[in-house]
Amino acid sequence: MWKKSSPKTSETPDGLTVIERTTRLQGNLFASAPVRIDGVVDGDVYVEAELTVGSEGQITGTIKAKEAYIAGKVRGDLFVDGALSVAESADIQGTIEYRALSVEMGAALEGTLRKKAPEDAASAHGDGGRRGKFQSRIRPGKDPDVSAPAPAEASGSHTEV
Fold this sequence. Notes:
mainly beta; ten-stranded parallel sheet
């Protein structure tokens, strides 16, 4: 009597949240899976995965994402842990923080751009990134693995022992 029909789905990855162009969201958006915004969001957007703002998409608020592709309009601060790609049609106003940046010619960016330090820089020395470039000098004779060059090496001649 009742036919069981399967739901109609579009070709989207599992867990993708889509804000369609006819949708307006007022409030904050939190997602652990990828998000695509083609409509309007008035509020903060926090995405633990990839964020895509389509050419008709608009966000007014703070954005934090793992990776982002922006082709629409953003009014607010944008913090991207990884790569940020800005399309020709993008219009962004606010502070933009990224690890890697790609901007197409014609994109509008207004505000402050800040490149994040590489993730492994803080952990490379095991000191939480506190070591500055002048604090890591090696002093001959003081460090166990480093010795002062022999006089022959210093003058440029080579002597075998």
